Amino acid sequence: MGGSSNVMPVISKIYCSSSPTMLTVRKRPHVVNGGGFVVLNSSQNLVFTVEGCGTLGAKGELVLKDGDGGSILSITKKGGIAQALRTRNRWNGYLMDYEGGKKFIFSLTDPKCPMSNAIRIHLEHKGQSKGWDFEVNGSFIDRACTIENYKGNIIAQVEESTGGKDLYHVMVQPGHDQAFTVGVVAILDNIYGESTRC
């Protein structure tokens, strides 16, 4: 895909590859660590896990971990009085460091109508020409959606698998951040009431 080698990683360059990367997402039952899902590479090695409710003891809290169990992202649904007045939920992704600190990385707001609106993602910095950095288009429920940057380039695509709804693929384009992509997929999973939802 043109221009993808110029894209800066969202979380870290260690999660970017110089070639297209096919990830396989497999849901876990809710009885296993509060649900969530695991992500395997093409060699069937565990590269990421996403823990849903039950792990942190609260709804709307997700944790993305690497294959060794180290925490990468803490993803929370924003609460408070201001949020209670909104009909749409805002999700914030925070990079977690080895000391337990958190740094804001991105935000995503639920669509007004889950079946027809693109979902916009805003990174920590401001100033992109469209006022947003990434957009999810298509149907996550049908396993037919893309994550595109503000220039319209596809950075990742969620695809159906022959394993049914509990198993699907995410193709990440070269130079793009796989951890960020999986974090977005984790939020979509929760929005649409799948394995990370309590």
Automatic annotation (TrEMBL):
<comment type="similarity">
    <text>Belongs to the LOR family.</text>
</comment>
<dbReference type="InterPro" id="IPR025659">
    <property type="entry name" value="Tubby-like_C"/>
</dbReference>
<dbReference type="InterPro" id="IPR038595">
    <property type="entry name" value="LOR_sf"/>
</dbReference>
<protein>
    <submittedName>
        <fullName>Protein LURP-one-related 6</fullName>
    </submittedName>
</protein>
<dbReference type="Pfam" id="PF04525">
    <property type="entry name" value="LOR"/>
</dbReference>
<dbReference type="InterPro" id="IPR007612">
    <property type="entry name" value="LOR"/>
</dbReference>
